[in-house]
Write a structure and sequence with these properties.
about 375 residues; alpha/beta; FAD/NAD(P)-binding domain; eight-stranded mixed sheet; five-stranded parallel sheet; 17 strands; about 25% helix
Length: about 375
């Protein structure tokens, strides 16, 4: 990378050093293309280390790998957040990926034929930019949260680590998806817990079961990876709903919540006399509220006309209105597996191929355009 007049030039700037960014770095490296990955966290993998203490992946280790490197754990085990974070750090080290941590991009715009990314007093000039971040970046809580009694401890799931952060007294967990259900189960061991929100359903088996050993690879590698894509009729029909709704419960089942004494209550719609008010008009007297209410996309720093009402305007990660701009890691970018560990490698291969083709390298686009080639790109257990 060269520097001139306070600017640092790189052919391709990758913003985000999680699994999506590392997969892109790997695919660019194998095409001998110059790039730099920047990430706001102090260490590679910190986006996972920062989750709550008991967090574990939902998919077995045999499905959790990036291109070129297996996960070292037991095939049917479920990695902790730190185990997966350490894998990502090892992955970056093994392939000597060009990652610089502690760099938070605050603005992305275009100047002429190149993009300009600003981070503090540093400016990165690039021919291509890959935004390798999920759609869930900025914690979302309802506006009325500020009206709750100041004595109530409030935490968003992005801040929650363990029950020790909570004060004595009952707990309201708002949001009944996977995060809310798992935290409700954990907190219910020591406190009375109310879980607010409609049911999202649940998969009919447990990830740790023998049945799951048969079904999860089929669901992950076939249904999520090959069937539910932007190319299939069923995928095209399913995509609008899937990018806007919650997923079914995976590890926790409704009967588990009942067994632990978690009380299901309707949605929280406001505040009455400092307490959370439910949709049915009742209030709940609690000492703590954990907001498992999701995230905003958090792409407001992109100063380009590429943001739609629900997601960036892209076609399989390619922003056609801004040549050289790409997204990876988004929900259902190409398939359901696009935001999952085992699916991001395919998207990275596709986008790296497009970057190579844009540079004009003959024969360098080895990405997968033909669905018949996907079998060779799938990770092997």
């Amino acid at each position: 990378m060269g520097a001139a007049r306070g600017r640092e030039y790189v052919e391709t700037l990758v913003i985000g050093g999680g699994q999506a960014g590392l997969a892109i770095g790997y695919q660019l490296s194998r095409r001998d293309l110059s790039y730099k990955i920047v990430d706001a966290n102090p260490r590679v993998g910190d986006v996972w280390r920062n989750r709550w203490d008991s967090f574990r992946l939902f998919t077995p280790n045999r499905l959790n790998r990036l291109p070129g490197m297996r996960f070292p754990g037991y095939h049917w085990g479920f990695a902790s957040k730190n185990e997966w974070a350490d894998y990502l750090e090892s992955y970056a080290r093994k392939f000597d990926l060009q990652v610089e941590t502690g760099i938070r991009v605050e603005r992305l715009t275009r100047e002429g034929d190149r993009f300009m990314a600003t981070s503090g007093d540093r400016r990165f000039e690039a021919d291509n930019v890959v935004i390798a971040m999920s759609s869930w970046q900025r914690p979302r809580v309802p506006d009325f949260a500020s009206e709750l009694d100041p004595e109530i401890v409030q935490l968003h799931v992005a801040e929650y680590k363990n029950p020790d952060q909570l004060q004595a007294g009952d707990v309201l967990v708002v949001g009944a998806g996977n995060s809310g259900a798992e935290i409700a189960i954990e907190v219910a061991r020591t406190r009375k817990v109310f879980l607010s929100g409609p049911s999202t359903g649940a998969i009919p088996f447990r990830p740790e079961s023998v049945v799951a050993r048969v079904l999860m690879p089929i669901v992950g590698r076939i249904l999520f990876h090959r069937v539910l894509t932007i190319r299939t009729p069923i995928g095209k029909r399913a995509r609008p709903k899937m990018i806007s709704t919650g997923e079914p419960l995976i590890r926790v089942k409704p009967k588990d919540l009942k067994t632990m004494g978690v009380e299901r209550v309707p949605r929280v719609t406001g505040v009455q006399a400092g307490s959370p008010q439910l949709e049915d008009g009742r209030t709940v007297d609690v000492a703590n509220v954990v907001w498992c209410t999701g995230f905003h996309p958090g792409f407001s720093w992109i100063d380009l006309p590429v943001l739609g009402p629900q997601e960036p305007l892209h076609k399989r990660g390619i922003v056609e209105s801004e040549p050289g701009l790409y997204f990876i890691g988004l929900k259902f970018l190409y398939s359901v597996s696009s935001e999952q560990i085992h699916g991001v490698g395919r998207d990275a291969d596709f986008i790296a191929g497009k970057i190579a083709a844009r540079r004009g390298l003959r024969g360098a686009d080895r990405s997968i355009d033909d669905p018949s080639k996907e079998r060779d790109a799938m990770p092997r257990a």
